[in-house]
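Batch manifest line 333
LIGAND: zinc ion
JOB: complex structure
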Amino acid sequence: MIAMLMSTHLKIAELISEELGISSKKIISRLKKGSCEPDRWKDFPHHYGKEREIRKHIVEARNLFLHGAEDDAFFQLGVALHYVQDAWVTIPGSHPLHGAWEDYIDDAAITDDLAGLVRDAMLNHFADGLTRYVFSDIPDEYVKASERQYLSIIKYTEQFEEMRRSDFDGYDGSFVRDKTLFIATLRHPILGSPILDLNFAYKISLMVSSAVCTSKESRDFKTEIEEKRRIYMDKLERAEELYAAKLSEMNMRKIELERKKGFINKLRKMACAYNFWFYKRAYDSRKHLKKIQKAYEREAEEIADLYEQWYLTYIPPLNIEKIERLFKPKNAH
Ligand SMILES: [Zn+2]
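JOB STATUS: finished
ARTIFACT:
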């Protein structure tokens, strides 16, 4: 029930290591080990229905990568890639020609020109070499549908590659995660050939691997969170100004009333003194600033939520201590 030969999985793992510029022998061997592992687990079938596993192992790989556990990250990535690659084998393991198909995949060449491969397949109606024996009397609409599917998959990979090249500039973490998982679980078109299977399996594996190894921090997140923090620092300063002005005004009124005589004024003075005491106590504990700090933390968490699906997120604290106390009471005499 093996879908792709171990030697093919290993070959792809090696090419990916090369393409990503991984030089650590240990990491390459972990990627290779992961790439073969599911066939030892024998949780067959592998060529379909493994979307949940693919997503799980990719997310796990990225999390391990973010936290510096690269060995384990590449093992997990390898496991995900195994299922991804098996899903790109056109014919099931139960097919009588499956063994030969696997060998053809293993012998096929890797090329950069996916569109060219699809064009060739179209010219031959997907009926060159081995494929001829697997698919007999292929209806035209199957050929047309497969071409459309292949071309749209190529378009996805091109868009994805462009986004990755700019380090996913302009996209948040949940977007990058969803796109990566989407690419990883694309459906195989109706028709295929060993060379298409190998090349699409490799291309998709490379896309997924490069996304898992992309920068640990997001520039967009940093910009967004810094901007949010700046806005809230302004809010703190403004709140301090307003509150200090209010206290000064109350204080002035208290002093004014203290100078006045009479019973009514005595009552007024008491009320005013109480009010002042009440507001001053809140001011001293910096309640007016803590409220703003809480609001900042809430909003910053919301932003971080979007990014932490794929990135490390650090929320810079909003430091109340940096805000100078503007209210300096004048005493009556
Ligand atoms: Zn397998």
